[in-house]
Amino acid sequence: MFSFFRKKSPPEQAQAPTPAAAAAATTAPEAVSVAEPAPAAPARQGWLDRLKNGLRKTGSNIATVFTGTRIDDDLYEELETALLMADTGVKATEHLLQDLKRRVKEAKATEPAQVKGLLADAIADLLQVLQKPLEIGAHHPTVIMVAGVNGAGKTTSIGKLTKHLADSGLSVLLAAADTFRAAAREQLAVWADRNTVEIVSQEGGDPAAVSFDAVTAGRARARDVVLVDTAGRLPTQQHLMHELGKIKRVVQKAEASAPHEVLLVIDGNTGQNALAQVKAFDDTLGLTGLIVTKLDGTAKGGVLCAIAREKPIPVYFIGVGEKLEDLETFDAREFAQALLS
Fold it and tell me: Where does this protein hold GTP (predicted)?
């Protein structure tokens, strides 16, 4: 489960609320953040177990490097190969190896098993730049635009996020702006019905127009969040990528400060191709966050290291399966430990 906590106002800003402000407080929550529960929480421990199982293929390929008895050049060469095979990328691999050698020297490590632990620390530090909570409530409504290629799990991730937001007492309005694919609208409608939230949809309509209507409706109905599901796009389809840019511009006409978040859903199984998608979509939309899905059973879990080194856009959530509880907030150290478990 995601936990939400309210940001406290600075003491100097505290003042007795007026009757009107008190009434508004019941419908307009302060900014909240999607953050990690305490590591010892049973639900979080269950999630960690699923994450470890999901990354086992990646981890086992790297772990074999540390089965020897000596810390030498051969170990580092084998580790370099294993990291590259895990789609860590050349830049991140070079960084990790240099950092690891420094840590080994400082720790005066003599056993390969010790090197494994130091590598986990190096990966956690590298991934720290990606760890950031998703803040909701600074704007009313908070408009979140979600993009991704077909098959990445975009609409399903939106449904899961909607569930957690709604369960936390936040009102959500969905925008079915993936008007080119009937199945996407139907899928989103199922999530809307399941979560008892409203949806703005139009068969065969213009995606930008649907998005505009949804943002306008979200503001008029005092919704906390408007989630805009856009059509799947390939970075090579420039005319379709331009359509995403149009949606963003039209959303800004409905609400000048929107979209407040632009998220990209990427499939962790695609490795370096996922990094290419991040770069392409960021160039078009100016991404603010990522959702990384389908990390279960992948041998390419190192791609987050590549993203951290080459395009450090925050990873708000990661997923290891299709179930609701298989999407969780990203924690750098948890991921590093799971990757090498």
Answer: 148-155, 229-233, 293-296
